[in-house]
Amino acid sequence: MASESISVIKLRDLLLVTVPPDPDDETVSALQEQVLRAMAQHEAKGLVLDISTVQTLDSFFARTVAETVQMVGLMGGRTVLAGMRASVAVTSTQLGLTVGNSLTALNVDRALDLLNAAPSGSRRV
Amino acid sequence: MKEEMNTPSKSPATVLGSEDSFRLLVESAKDYAIIMLDLSGHVASWNAGAERIKGYRAEEIIGKHFSCFYPAEALQRGLPEQELKAAAKDGRFEDEGWRVRKDGQQFWANVIVSALRDKDGTLRGFSKVTRDLTERKQAEVQIQQQSKEIMELSTPVMQVWQGVVVAPLIGSLDSNRTQQFMERLLGRIVETNSPVALVDIMGVPTIDTQTAQHLVETISAVRLLGAQVVLTGVRPAIAQTLVHLGIDLSGIMTRASLSAGLQVAFDILKLQVVSKDSSH
Amino acid sequence: MNENEPHQGEFRITSENDIVMARKVVRDAATTLGFGLTDVTRIVTAASELTRNIYHYAKSGVMHWRVLNSGTENGLELTFEDQGPGIPDIEKAMEPGFSTGKGLGMGLPGSKRLMDELTIESTVGKGTTVVVRKWMRK
Predict the structure, then answer these.
(1) Among B211, B244, A26, which residue's Cα sits nearest to residue B231?
(2) Can you tell me the distance from the alpha carbon of B164 to that of B229, in angstroms, rounded to the nearest whole number?
């Protein structure tokens, strides 16, 4: 039931995943599973996590995201976190969270540009 | 302070005799409350200035204890007694603080209490000169408040180009102010969809570990959004301090001037400034 | 603040899904009280961390919230109470990165940074009470 709220969209060789606004732990874990399965299935070279509607990024969520970025990396893909809200960015920084080696972008458009540009990303967090 | 200080062509002392003229001077002085207290602090003399400043007429107050001029908080601290003690010991005591008028209103007073001793050095009483500095105090408080407000409001975040915002930081940065700044900067980056933010610290007088930490935090938060900060206006003194404090700014783009920072912003956005004059 | 709004409430934590529900309760309370969006996010995030701590370490517990008034400013107080195993070394638990469970070790120190005040009382074998407060910035 939880996994229904996540949509994984394939855009050429990229995946676009829209994260729901206030996911519970189960949904967050399901998201990781689904993303990894889709990565394998489509042999995607990159992943855009659209978090523009996410209201709360706590340590569990952040850890799962960081892990996912790492796992996607092992499968040869790069991840861009797109559209983090200003309030969430301030809070996460103050909480001491990092999102691993993820690239970041102001919105999905820029994230797609970033992944379609040269393979070596410069904006690492 | 006005007419009393003027020197007429004929000195009043020569007309009246020095003691009388001195008494007149004291009695008529309107800008200063000049009073005498006996050894235990009861009012022994009163002048026009005292009536104007404190609101009591001479017949109402002579013989009363001078502690009635103090607010409750000062009485609790035992300030009236301390003033007399200090004046008796050192000859003179000066203080600034709130005092109370007859109608209960408070005024900001400069007070000088001096010990009065006779020829043998025996303490006879005290003189007390009080000035009403309420207006000056109010002006000071107002200036303090205004400068605080200016400090808080003075961090505009301006969009200077499509995709570039500039935030000039001015004055000292405490954690509360930095937090507000961080929120405003991030909000503006999202609103204007700007991948580059130039944070100019030219106007920051000094930087300490905590301020630097706040800056680093702000820069990390901006990165989470998908934008990047170029720290500009890094003066030599600030650069020295940052290195001496051991603050790690590696991975953070810094430039000495705002214009150099703008160039970096253009590079990031893959923009080029071209002269219209084709001959160059 | 509307006089008709409740000034306190409580919420029981018994399942993982209650972490999301607790966030919602706290978000509503903080928003109603008039906190700005970033402060609401801070408070909700701290509540999420502390609720998850209860669920992970004690399995169940209670969160109380109430509106504070210091005379000059309003604030929100959240109390997280459980009858779990307790924290043997509170000082250590407040160090970033220290965790005995599944967490990142960010819960307690992170919540302290997000809130204005955080106090812990804990007895091993009896339980833990964490109180956090956030005051409204002028």
Answers:
(1) B211
(2) 10
Q: Tell me: the pLDDT tens digits for B172-228? A: 777 777 888 889 999 999 999 999 999 999 988 888 888 888 888 899 999 999 999
List the CATH number of the domain containing C102: 3.30.565.10
* Chain B contact present for C137, CB below 8 A: yes
The H or E element containing residue B108 is strand B106-117
Task: Answer yes or no: is C3 within a domain.
Answer: no
| C-beta of residue C49 within 8 angstroms of C-beta of residue C111 | yes
The CATH code of the domain at A2-116 is 3.30.750.24
Tell me what percent of the residues of chain C surpass a pLDDT of 70.
87
The domains of chain B, with CATH numbers, are 31-135 (3.30.450.20), 150-268 (3.30.750.24)
Closest residue to A104, CB basis, from B186, B193, B225: B225
Q: Which of C40, C49, C113 sits opposite A94 (nearest CB)?
A: C113
Q: Which residue has the tokens 């007073």?
A: B109
How many domains does the structure of chain C reveal? Answer: 1
Residue C53 lies in a domain: yes
Domain regions of chain A by residue span: 2-116
- Per the structure, the complete domain to which residue C62 belongs is given by 8-135
Nearest to A46 by CA among A3, A10, A83: A10
Chain C residues whose C-beta is within 8 A of a chain A C-beta are 16-17, 19-20, 23-24, 27, 37-38, 40-42, 44-45, 48-49, 52, 96, 103-104, 106-107, 109-111, 113-114
Q: Do B183 and C137 touch (CB under 8 A)?
A: no
Report pLDDT for A125: 42
A88-107 in b/e form (b: 16+ CB < 10 A) is: bbbbbbbbbbbbbebbbbbb
